[in-house]
Amino acid sequence: MAPSPVAARVANRKESRSWFEPPLPAPMEHWRPWRPRVGLAMPDEHAWWQRGVVYQVYPRSFQDSNGDGVGDLPGVLSRLDHLAALGVDAVWISPIYPSPMADFGYDVSDYTGIAPVFGSLEDFDRLVAAAHARGLRVILDYVPNHSSDRHPWFIESRSSPANPKRDWYVWRDPAPDGGPPNNWLSEFGGPAWTFDATTGQYYYHAYLPEQPDLNWRNPELRAAMLDVLRFWFDRGVDGFRVDAIHHLIEDAAFRDNPPNPDWKPGMSPARRLIRAHTMDQPEVHDEIADMRRVSDTHADAHGGERVLIGEAYLPIDRLMAYYGADLSGFQLPFNFHLLSTPWRAREIGALVERYEAALPPGAWPNWVLGNHDRSRVASRLGPAQARVAAMLLLTLRGTPTIYQGEEIGMMDVPIPPERVQDPWERNVPSLGFGRDPVRTPMQWDAGPNAGFTRGAAEPWLPLAPDHGAVNVAAQAADPRSMLSLHRALLALRRAEPALSVGSYIPIEGAEDVLAYERRDTATGRRLLVALNLGGQERELPDAASGRRTLLSTYMDNGAPRLRPDEGVVVGEPAAGLSSPA
Ligand code: GLC
């Protein structure tokens, strides 16, 4: 009797011996710390921010150098070798500017300084130089929607209705009953308007009262904020992640937002209203185009491009507008859809196709699995699927962003009530909006405070209880760890243009299996990615037949079938790949 097609495929694979050939050297052995010198032209038409991988540092929690329990810039500098060994290309640092820290740096009181808790401008310059010397780009956070209420601009603005800076913020008269001018709500709970008794008007704040919204309809404010970009570009930064961009402009007529019929208890109080007049207003695209013009006139010393990455949590069709008319907007409007799409092969596959299909011509995709605002991927999906998710992130078409700690599988950390820091959790307690659990200190080693701080001061947030086992030092010594997997994925991505810049072709997979091919159009080289998003063993797609496992999330040579929670990259070994550096 003829064997079933599946059995024949498995048998063929055995005959071709491709599953049983001697193992490739462990990925670390053929990892080469190759990097272009900053600014050197790439061998093809792709920019560094297209080929590269971004790593987000949340500086309060990365590395403390002075023992005060809060991370700082010299701390980041001292850990750059971790990033270089990991194999990322750019580091985005969350805000480091002077700030009363009501929202932990997202309330800026001086856009062109460094908060003493993080260090000094000299520390910053040293960090940029040290990063560039390692071929790492530096991306800063730009917070244009709001300043701190302690910013000198706001102090002036609130001093009198006649002050020249009055119109740099959004002021309105009370409603006839003395209440707020309209029904707009703050993202962090409560009304979005705060009354100022001195001048008898309300000011608008999309977030905390300590974060008054800047008025981008005022030309002087706009010019001052664009100068902020110039200041940092002149200091050598390679780009910006632009905070909360969808909130930048509000309805000129200040119309009430309509009620949201889908709101239910347990959802954020701000979602009681549809944010029709406070978010994603059409005028925002002119402002982004202005930012982009400034960015484009600041090519680096070697003619390299600067990058602008926009933060906007929007449906795919609305997100696409943030690339701008004729790509005059952000190079990378953050794509957060992996954070909210159900973790099932069909849904994720459909998301990728929908996103790819929606991209305007010439627009470059990007993907995000986590950040300082969202539950960690290992907590959302479990540690086994977090490995599959890492392979997805680093093999999809487009620029990936890795959040600090994801490379070792850090989990959300429960925060006892007395240690809560996040203002969102304080304002809207116990509904799960608190972001402290994803901001706990980076776990470097099994020593005291996980190597995050060596001082007497307690870290500003508690350490994860698992830090004795889950840390960089332990995982660096374990060839199958999450860290080793990340290093191997990043090395493979660097070695394989098919993965960094190749095309994306979906492939039919078995139940629970998300499969696609990445093809380098220049050379025709094809790699197959097959991800088992479930806990059952599954067939590999036919296209894998006779090809070899280049990388498995199990960190071994693969198996004839896809094991539970396994992801693989399959292909013919590339000529240069197995030769040690
Ligand atoms: C962005 C930041 C978040 C901050 C908010 C207000 O969403 O990522 O951390 O609280 O903007 O600035």
- Beta-strand residue fraction: 5-15%
**Unreliably modeled segments:** 1-42, 576-581
What is the CATH C level class of the largest domain, in words?
A: Alpha Beta
In round numbers, the mean pLDDT is 92
Integer tally of domains:
3
Largest sheet, order of strands side by side? 9-8-7-3-2-1-11-10
What does this structure look like?
With 581 residues, the protein is of the alpha/beta class. The chain folds into three domains: 5-147 and 219-493, TIM Barrel (Alpha-Beta Barrel), CATH 3.20.20; 152-204, Oligo-1,6-glucosidase, domain 2; 503-571, Golgi alpha-mannosidase II (Immunoglobulin-like, Sandwich). Helices cover 24% and strands 12% of the residues. The strands form three sheets. An eight-stranded parallel beta sheet has the order 9-8-7-3-2-1-11-10. A five-stranded antiparallel beta sheet has the order 12-13-14-16-15. Strands 4-6-5 form a three-stranded antiparallel beta sheet, with no helix packed on it. Helix 7 (219-234) runs parallel beside helix 8 and helix 12 (383-395) packs parallel to helix 15. The termini are far apart. Residues 1-42 and 576-581 have low confidence and may be disordered. Alpha-D-glucopyranose (GLC) is lined by residues 103, 106, 143, 207, 243-244, 311, 372-373. Residues 103, 106, 143, 207, 243-244, 311, 372-373 line the site of alpha-D-glucopyranose.
